[in-house]
Amino acid sequence: MIRVNRQGEVWVFAEQEDGVLNDVSLELCGKARQLGDQLGVKVAAVLPGCDVRPLSRRLIAHGVDRVYSVHDEKLRHYQTNAYAKVLVELIQKHEPQIVLFGATHLGRDLAPRVASAVRAGMTADCTDLQIKDVTDVRTKEVHPNLLLQIRPAFGGNIVATIVNYDMWPQMATVREGVMPLQEPDGKRTGETIDETVQLAAADVPLKLIERHVEERKVNLKGARVIVAGGGGVGSKENFKLIHELAGAIGGAVGASRAAVDGGFISKDHQVGQTGTTVRPALYIACGISGAVQHRAGMEESAKVIAINSDPNAPIYSVAHYGIVGDLNRVIPLMVKGLRERPTAEEGAVVGDW
């Protein structure tokens, strides 16, 4: 267990693969900057890998003051033991007060191992982080400037706030997309500190013989327009309506968990608490009831249009415009109207969603 160091830095684990930083790491740099400013402490990123030191510049531009870079050929490809040893040794050396990981497959594997090794608490899949004074209801002792680790619980039916009084560092994994990606500031200055961690053969127990990387088929986080279908679409065959509307409007195809579980579309398209968090300019929800788990992943969209035959569907609580009707009739009419609208050459005013 690391001692409580209230002057300790706020850290971000800089997740990278093949020399490319994961977006969630850059999102967390912005949030860490905000937390660090509130606490009056430095913000740092831990960057393990092989030949990844040049990535430090980008991390600094996104808000960190210093980067702890660990270069080793054994870190070229992620293995739990090796990466955990790097994090644990650096945490023991520098005593940060907060350590943040992205809730990616890699982050969800690494963070619990590190937390267990340093005997710290950890909250998984956070959707918000705040700094506040907390009063212990039993002892009435006031703990200043604790990290409030906020996440949905009980299937998304409540929001739980978790605090860690004394088992430091305070650690959390944060879902991709829930923290806005801040614009980088190329004028920011910072320092890169080269760290060395001795890795033995036992720390890299697996030998990589062959590697296959499947390219992600959809980029929901980067889409400005998303047309999403839910369980109300009815079938995989009927989900073609969602693809048609997305094609007519130039948008990406999303889905609720019910549609994914029903086999209508692959999980890459899932929006919501257990899928991707999105903030498009326009989100069209078709046949989606609007359970809290789904709303958590799309309610910050600039404009939301809901199509549902149930006038009392929860999705209407976050929709700017609602169409109460059968999507099997509504969507074909929308597609027809979009395809028949006059082009710019015909004198129409073409707007930008």
Secondary-structure map:
Blueprint lengths: L9 E4 L2 E2 L2 E2 L1 H17 L3 E7 L6 H6 L4 E6 L8 H15 L3 E5 L2 H13 L4 E5 L1 E8 L6 E12 L4 E5 L7 E5 L16 E5 L29 E5 L10 H10 L2 E4 L1 H5 L20 E5 L5 H4 L7 E6 L12 E4 L2 H14 L13
What does the model show?
- By secondary structure, the protein is an alpha/beta fold.
- The protein folds into two domains: 10-203, Rossmann fold; 225-346, TPP-binding domain (Rossmann fold), CATH 3.40.50.
- The chain contains eight helices and 17 strands.
- It has helices at 23-39, 56-61, 80-94, 105-117, 240-249, 257-261, 292-295, 327-340, and strands at 10-13, 16-17, 20-21, 43-49, 66-71, 98-102, 122-126, 128-135, 142-153, 158-162, 170-174, 191-195, 225-229, 252-255, 282-286, 303-308, 321-324.
- The strands form four sheets. A seven-stranded parallel sheet has the order 7-11-6-1-4-5-12, sandwiched between helices. The chain has a five-stranded parallel sheet with strand order 14-13-15-16-17. Strands 8-9-10 form a three-stranded antiparallel sheet.
- Helix 3 (80-94) packs across helix 4 and helix 5 runs parallel beside helix 8 (327-340).
- It is globular and about 65 Å long.
- The model is unreliable at 344-353 (pLDDT under 50).
